[in-house]
């Protein structure tokens, strides 16, 4: 079992534990703000399950029907996460509005805050794992899950502070107001997750820093060639697709041109291990005198 799958399974287990704790905190206090926190945890579990399914699909090898692999499945999962997050936010806003019209008295706040604080600490620790491993493993599904949990951690901290203030001041109206703020924050988080994932589905190029590294490698390792042009990149999950035209002297043999391509591919994969590279070799009269000049 891959590291990505193990982390995805861990997300489901952590999500269930946090959901149980936050639900208990809500039942103890009757706070609508703590209820909104528990509702978001339901989304956490659902999105963790969606991420696990997407990661399993994304790791399937290429086949006749999908010659470029199944890597984009993770982007679909992240979009689904965004939809679920937005749905939860709208549900929270609805409940907060009802509570705003009829404010409720908060119950055993000390015990409720203690339970919710424990759930928040567990979420924060797992959020750090997801964000770190999502970047390391280049998994959009894990990264999206981590960004969502980060939003959950922030909103949970705000909820605890607000509930404490509502009890300390006696202003019960603070409870539904705080739930509304949580809902708006979650709504924004869901939109950001969707926007990031849609860019991957639209074959967005790699970040400028990565593109600069690719250009430098081609320039440095393609000695024997004249230039490289029409460089294009895109990413799908952990895989980066790179293709470009490599111009060589007209007298270069096929074997020598192949050696140049092998050298460039090897260096690019040392920098981007999961890269899939396509190089089109052209004679010198095809040079455009632009793009990447070979050192």
TrEMBL record:
It is a multi-pass membrane protein. InterPro entries: Cation_efflux, Cation_efflux_CTD, Cation_efflux_CTD_sf, Cation_efflux_TM, Cation_efflux_TMD_sf, CDF_Transporter. It comes from the Bacteria. Residues 11-202 form the Cation efflux protein transmembrane domain. Its main location: membrane. Keywords: Membrane, Transmembrane, Transmembrane helix, Transport. It is found in: Membrane. The chain crosses the membrane at residues 41-58, 78-97, 109-131, 152-171. Residues 207-284 form the Cation efflux protein cytoplasmic domain. Belongs to the cation diffusion facilitator (CDF) transporter (TC 2.A.4) family. NCBIfam families: CDF. This is Cation diffusion facilitator family transporter. It comes from Paracoccus rhizosphaerae.
């Amino acid at each position: 079992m891959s590291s990505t799958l193990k982390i995805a399974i861990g997300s489901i287990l952590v999500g269930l534990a946090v959901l149980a704790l936050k639900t208990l905190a809500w039942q103890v206090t009757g706070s609508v703000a703590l209820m909104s926190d528990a509702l978001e945890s339901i989304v956490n579990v659902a999105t963790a399950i969606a991420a696990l399914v997407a990661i399993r699909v994304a790791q399937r090898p290429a086949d006749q029907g999908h010659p470029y692999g199944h890597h984009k499945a993770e982007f679909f999962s992240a979009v689904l996460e965004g939809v679920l997050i937005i749905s939860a936010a709208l549900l929270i806003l609805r409940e907060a509005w009802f509570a705003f019209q009829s404010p409720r008295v908060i119950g055993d706040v000390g015990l409720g805050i203690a339970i919710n604080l424990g759930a928040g600490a567990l979420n924060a620790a797992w959020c750090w794992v997801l964000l770190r491993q999502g970047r390391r493993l280049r998994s959009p599904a894990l990264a999206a899950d981590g960004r969502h949990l980060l939003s959950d951690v922030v909103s949970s901290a705000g909820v605890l502070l607000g509930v404490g203030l509502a009890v300390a001041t006696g202003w019960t109206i603070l409870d539904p107001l705080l739930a509304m703020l949580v809902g708006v924050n979650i709504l924004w988080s869901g939109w950001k997750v969707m926007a990031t994932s849609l860019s991957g589905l639209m074959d967005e190029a790699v970040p400028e820093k990565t593109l600069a590294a690719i250009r430098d490698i081609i320039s440095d390792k393609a000695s024997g060639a004249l230039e490289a042009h029409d460089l294009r990149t895109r990413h799908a999950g952990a895989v980066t697709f790179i293709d470009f035209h490599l111009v060589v002297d007209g007298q270069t043999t096929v074997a020598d041109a192949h050696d140049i391509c092998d050298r460039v591919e090897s260096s690019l994969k040392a920098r981007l291990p999961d890269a899939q590279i396509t190089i089109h070799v052209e004679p010198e009269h095809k040079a455009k005198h632009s793009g990447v000049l070979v050192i």
